[in-house]
Design brief:
Elements: E1 3-10, E2 15-24, E3 39-40, E4 62-69, H1 74-89, E5 98-104, H2 108-125, E6 129-133, H3 134-145, E7 151-157, E8 163-171, E9 176-186, E10 199-201, H4 204-208, E11 220-222, H5 229-241, H6 264-307, H7 324-329, H8 347-354
Helix pairs in contact: 1-2, 3-5
């Protein structure tokens, strides 16, 4: 009895994900369809114990996996994890029939890592590669977690305030996914909802909240249906059996986005937009201070006019050439040295006395 051994890799996210799948080949003329449960070998990280099932033993893959959070250093963990899986499963690397990898979209560095490792191993082994889109992997994961998820809108946070997304429908006749809308990049508000009840897979709903309008129409939101080597392996097995593997020299990432980062002008514009609320608040505060100052000056003029004093001579603040507003501000105690020789600081009492009778001098006349 022959079998297919398939290795799957994914480093499109902050996880280093590796899976090894081994399945007996079905007898000639029998169906090779795969349904929803699995026979799992021993593994660490995140392995599956109920990912694939079938009506007979020929269709039950055995799987081993590693799924570890490695951040930006997945490249240092990928090859050791592959060796661990083959040792654990008891297979030699040369037993591998094909190598599947998460082609993207996702982290540019991560996509290049998975593509490069898959391509290098495939060249050395003389076997083909099977590129699987990471959004298709989300759809595959959602259906294996919930067999009723036959229409899946996969949406992943693409950073830079955008979303990677695609719309998939399960085709019973093909026993595979059909892309209703191929992988695209859009603002969260611009994603189009499917025309049938759908599951929303991926982390975009958690990342964008109410801005992701399609979340409100989803029958189920599966935030755990994310890129992972296990669903990539199952999707790749169907692709392998359907003849969709490609030579190693054709392995290539699917970036979808054609720019890595914002330009300097875009970053400055974004920073300016973020600062606008602060600038607007400061303008309102400054306007309030100006109105308060003008209101105080107007009140001084009204009081002076009522008492018959010139506008530049507020009560109790007789100055030697100082502006009236300054003298008025000092009338509470530190203006005594300038108020008709009264150094005791009792300018408020003097102001009260002067306000009851107009001074015997013309406007603008200096005090004696």
């Amino acid at each position: 009895m022959t079998e297919t051994v398939l290795l799957a890799l994914d480093t499109s996210t902050e996880f280093c994900s590796v899976a090894l799948l081994a399945v007996a080949n079905p007898p000639a003329g029998s169906s090779s369809g795969l349904s929803s449960g699995a026979s799992s070998g021993s593994s660490s990280g995140s392995s599956s114990g109920s990912l694939i099932a079938s009506a007979d033993a020929y269709h039950e893959p055995r799987v081993w996996s590693r799924h570890e959070s490695t951040g930006a250093v997945s490249s240092t963990r990928l090859l050791p994890a592959i060796r661990e899986l083959f040792d654990e499963a008891g297979y030699a690397l040369s037993a591998c029939d094909a190598i599947a990898f998460g082609a993207g979209p996702g982290s540019f560095t991560g996509l290049r890592t998975a593509t490069g490792v898959a391509q290098g191993l495939a060249f050395g082994l003389g076997c083909p590669v099977v590129p699987i889109g990471t959004l298709a992997a989300c759809a595959e994961s959602a259906r294996r977690r919930d067999p009723s998820a036959t229409r899946v809108l996969a949406a992943l946070d693409a950073r830079m305030d955008e979303v990677y997304w695609a719309d998939y429908a399960w085709d019973d006749a093909l026993q595979d996914w059909r892309a209703v809308r191929a992988a695209a990049l859009d603002a969260p508000e611009r994603i189009a909802a499917p025309d049938a009840p759908y599951t929303l897979a991926g982390n975009a709903a958690a990342a964008f909240g109410g801005r992701l309008a399609v979340a409100a129409g989803a029958r189920v939101i599966d935030g755990e249906a994310l890129p992972h080597a296990l669903p990539i392996a199952f999707a790749a097995l169907r692709a392998w059996r359907a003849g969709r593997a490609v030579p190693a020299d054709q392995a290539a990432p699917e970036y979808v986005r054609d720019k890595v980062a914002l330009t300097t002008a875009e970053r400055l514009a974004a920073k300016a937009a973020q600062q606008m609320p602060d600038a607007a608040g400061e303008a309102v505060a400054a306007s309030g201070r100006t109105r308060g100052k003008l209101g105080g000056q107007s009140e001084d003029r009204s009081n002076n006019q009522a008492s018959g004093r010139p506008d530049n001579q507020p009560g109790g603040a007789q100055t030697s050439g100082r502006p009236g507003a300054q003298a008025h501000g000092q009338s509470s105690g530190d203006s005594g040295g300038d108020s008709n020789g009264d150094s005791s600081g009792h300018s408020s009492a003097q102001s009260s006395t002067q306000s009851s009778a107009p001074p015997n001098r013309e406007p603008g006349e200096r005090p004696q």
